[in-house]
Amino acid sequence: MKKSLYIAAKDLRSEFRTKQMLNSMLIFSLIVMVIFSISFGDVLGQTELVGKLAPGVLWVAFTFAGTLGLSRSFAGEMENGCLEGLKLSPIDRSSIYIGKTISNVLLMFIVELLTIPIFIVLFNYNISGIPGLALVIFLGTFGFVSVGTLLSALSASTRAREIMLPVLLLPLIIPVIIPAVMATGTILADGSIGDISSELRLLIVYDLIFFVVGQLVFEYTVMD
Amino acid sequence: MDSIISLTGLSKSFGRRKALNNIDLVIGKGEFVAIFGPNGAGKTTLLKIMSTIIEPTKGNVLINGIDSKKDPSKIRGMIGAISHETYLYDELTARENLEFFAHMYDIDKDHIDDRIDDILKNVNLFQRADERAGSFSRGMKQRLSIARALLHQPSILLMDEPYTGLDQHAAANFERVLMGTGNSDVTRIMITHNIERAFELCDRMLIMDRGELRFDKLKTDIESVEEFKEQYLSIVEKDTDAEGISNF
């Protein structure tokens, strides 16, 4: 676990210096928000209607911005043969997966933290139930990144990696996106955490399964 | 001489293509071995198997008495690797790169700073320690790459075409650093196409072709670099001729 944290710290340090992933994710999120706010200009300020749109708008932004970021997640490791350098060191392959997952989750949280205020301003909307929403976003993001990190490693060594990642990722994240969108909708409609217990259970099970499977199969995705 | 690397009946196939075919090789502690061969001869595959990055299809690998299938992680801890790839993160400084790998190699936290200072001085990069690796010249990156490989004081150093991209001056610098760092007990194995330089540095010369070990002699048993070049050409050209006939 300690080595995973060093890997995550190294990734975050590199990212904060170049901001390659963060910038592209944030700009994408902003564009999505602006386009949706223009498209749904008629309903801006109408709390009930915006509340119905909000889960879809937010998760579209999170998912596609996340996919964009994940496609760069292993790009840095492919430069200068760094992934091989990591594989040569006496660490468990799963430590690389865990480290990458931690850094990707943290980067997505930053994007999400900045996207939500943009949504609030552009849609003139007041978000209620912040703790419940934070829990849903955390579980949804963790599940998304657990699968995404694995597939990012898998597609990193292929020629058409930019195309390969979304093609592989999007069908696999449907089971995490559906409960996340439904739970977000319930929370924004003043629901309590108790009202989304079935969605939370689904998210937790999905997260656990893919995080464990990711650790087990990661070795094979980075094998020569 | 005690052996540190022992390969027995080693074969490796990628699908239907055989990259290595029944290699038997013993390398002693402290030996400096050069491996030559045309592209696709299986040299890099052999080094990757020694470093436990890939598993052989058949055969056994013993590194310092440890079976590579049983404890690959322990073996990786004994090995330092230098390649034409630097394995360095361009966005991190020289010191940050070494700190990161020091953590990966479990170097005692209390000694990391001293060790990094020492090794950066050895490779003449101490003054540039806080500059990003991405801003370094190819020669400087290769010296930092040596520092990274020797940081954990490995007993085996594997080098895969380390001269790639280096000019004459940088290559000479690389050799100076290579021979000046680490202790004489370090076993060095180098893949290269540079026969003259390797003949100067190494104790033992191997030639591989088409996944087989075709030549294995101590330098003292070879009269001159010219004789070795002739041997090399006769092995490689004979096989090329044979391939031409079989293809025809």
Automatic annotation (TrEMBL), chain A:
Residue ranges crossing the lipid bilayer per the database entry: 21-41, 53-70, 105-127, 133-155, 167-188, 200-218
Any one annotated GO CC term: plasma membrane
Keyword Cell membrane among record annotations: yes
Keyword match Transmembrane: yes
GO biological process, one term: cytochrome complex assembly
Locations listed in the record: Cell inner membrane
Keywords, alphabetical: Cell inner membrane, Cell membrane, Cytochrome c-type biogenesis, Membrane, Transmembrane, Transmembrane helix, Transport
InterPro entries with a match to the protein in the record: Cyt_c_biogenesis_CcmB, Cyt_c_CcmB_bac
Family statement drawn from the similarity comment of this UniProt entry: Belongs to the CcmB/CycW/HelB family.
Family annotation (PANTHER family): CYTOCHROME C BIOGENESIS B-RELATED (PTHR30070:SF1), HEME EXPORTER PROTEIN B (PTHR30070)
Functional note: Required for the export of heme to the periplasm for the biogenesis of c-type cytochromes.
Protein's recorded name: Heme exporter protein B
TrEMBL record, chain B:
ABC transporter domain location: 5-235
Record Gene3D superfamilies: P-loop containing nucleotide triphosphate hydrolases
InterPro entries: AAA+_ATPase, ABC_transporter-like_ATP-bd, ABC_transporter_ATP-binding, P-loop_NTPase
Residue ranges the record marks as coiled coil: none
UniProt entry tagged with the keyword Secreted: no
SUPFAM superfamilies: P-loop containing nucleoside triphosphate hydrolases (SSF52540)
Top-level taxon in the UniProt lineage: Archaea
Keywords annotated in UniProt: ATP-binding, Nucleotide-binding, Transport
Gene Ontology MF, one: ATP hydrolysis activity
Family that this chain belongs to: Belongs to the ABC transporter superfamily.
Protein name: Heme exporter protein A
Organism taxonomic ancestry: Archaea, Methanobacteriati, Methanobacteriota, Stenosarchaea group, Methanomicrobia
